[in-house]
Request: fold
Amino acid sequence: MTAQTNHFIENKIRAGLRVTRLFVAYAPFNLVRQLQKISMYHVRLPQDIQTKLTAKPAGEWFDSKAADDQSPVILYVHGGGFVLPQTHFHRAMLAQLTTEIQGHTFMVDYRLAPEHPFPAGLDDCLAAYQYLLDEGISPQRITVMGDSAGGNLTLGLLIALRDRHLPMPRQAISISAPTDFTDENPAHNVIDDLLHPRAIARFAVSYVVGQDVRNPLISPLFADLHGLPPLIMYAGGNEALSTDSVRFAEAAEAAGVDVTLRVYPRMWHVWQLQPELPQARQSLAEIADAVRATRTQPEMLTNVH
Reply:
């Protein structure tokens, strides 16, 4: 693909995202949810993929027909500002990723704010992780992964697991994760292609109402990060929350965490959901490589103190 073609694709996607950006910033949450629900299952999945819904914990399995009992497992936490459900973009991306890793993915359908503010969503992620362990899945096969609000919940889950002395997953991957909910965060005043400052404020108020935003399970940037498993973080160079990932990665590295930060130039918030974008395919290929490696590498133990 030529640079000119790539540039055309980027600009075309950006034009659509700017409409979405204003809609999410101002539309009632219930309206956005209804529109997402209509399209959620209108997606063609690869023939290799079988899906199954679960009730307790609520979620959806994506299983590759090529998987076996040693295949990698992803626990996926979707984004949506803590207030919106998974989208057809998430389902399409996870189906393709599950095919690439020849494994399994469980996307947890956690409770949403404002009806269920913090810590309901995080509690559901903990329950989903425990569900995988109860199913007999070794933590060394598990990659916890999330985008946007789901990236925040992914990091919060790691901290909660460590503090409860529970087995750690093999690794974690975050995409465009918010890590600092304080008013001092400069990202909250930046306008990018997808996240409007008004949307960020709406999401935050809905999720953390009445809470201390410096709680490390809300703003993981302020947590003690010692003893966390290997972490891969993605951020877009043009997104408001890029500094959240950069600052967290620096703090994690200072705490001795094996952390890899990948900032993609010109990219926006969770660009991986746009499959026609070359940068999306590239980053998802990197993620698939990292997850597949959990099958072949010798087991790694994360010390919890």
Q: What stands out?
A: The first strand starts at residue 49 and ends at 55. The chain has one domain: 8-296.
